[in-house]
Amino acid sequence: MKKLIIASNNKNKVYEIKELLKDLKIEILSLKEAKIDVDVEEDGSTFQENSYKKAKQIKEILNNKKEEKFIVMADDSGLEVDCLNGNPGVYSARYAGEHGNDKKNNEKLLEELKHVKDENRKANFTCCIVMLTDDGEEMIAEGKSYGFISRRLIGKEAFGYDPLFYVPELKKTFAEMTLNEKNSISHRGRALKIVKEKLKQYLEER
Q1: Helix (H) or strand (E) holding 72
Q2: 136-155 pLDDT, tens per residue?
Q3: Statement: residue 157 has pLDDT above 80
Q4: Cα–Cα distance for residue pair 138/131, rounded to 1 Å
Q5: For residue 103, is pLDDT > 80?
Q6: Any known ligand binding at 162?
Q7: Which domain of life is it from (predicted)?
Q8: Residue 51 is labelled as binding a ligand
């Protein structure tokens, strides 16, 4: 059985991916579960550049270990706010300067938008996933989710900018949604649906 190595140790992200791909005949592992300790610098100018860089570096580690029958999956995602010219974009995780500090990132975003009218607070989440296989295949998928930035944090079941990302069609922020609701419309959920079909076809051909 092939192994799918997710280029992340983010428990929330790993759980979401495992749930969406659980019916595929493939073993899914986080970096920690695969015993890989690496911190790839995300210095690309696009989500795809960052995803590809992460996947390539982890593939090289696996090749050096003489591993076989693997697929590396790397993703980069972020929030793009229309009136901020697409920012925070690739800097989403470190928007306030400290990587992964959700509280400070949300505070900075709210501060920058405090004088912006509700109708001008349009935003989208984008997720780009790159997969590299041991036998040289490359697969790319992208998903987007559209909404607005709320004026305060709403909801608890989430991470990142989820408590601020309001989706009119469900009248909820990402942080108020169940996992199934979020997966059905989220940027990562949409990208993973494409991934699932690509993986299914790839596995069937081997």
Answers
A1: strand 70-81
A2: 999 999 999 999 999 999 99
A3: no
A4: 6
A5: yes
A6: yes
A7: Bacteria
A8: no
